[in-house]
Amino acid sequence: MKDHSVLVVRNNKGEILFARRSLTKKALPGMWALASGTVEVGESIMQTAEREVTEELGLVIRPTEVLFELELEKAGVRLHFVLLESGDMQIEEFDTGEIAEVMWMTTCDFYDKHIDEDIVHGLRYLRDKQHLVN
What we know:
alpha+beta; four-stranded mixed β-sheet; three-stranded antiparallel β-sheet
């Protein structure tokens, strides 16, 4: 089972940074998700989160804590949802090979705006279990 750090980037307004996956991605192209990355050999979950937030979103932020984990057996992945507090930082540039679009929103607004067919399984799980509700 592969481990992934899922970036729960939260600003000082309590909004979460959602990302629409690039259309060139092999897995789940064009779907709304949270930025994430695969844990590399010798790397911790927190180190992966810190690396990925810089690589994909261009932010330098230290992760605060692992909020919870979710195993997706069919996909063979274990998702570790990691909180990163961004304060009032703005996204200047992001990795367009990974991400097509980013959007700061409360989770309630996000789920009101997007249907299940547009969001990845992990975000549906969060909604259904009422994780990250704001």
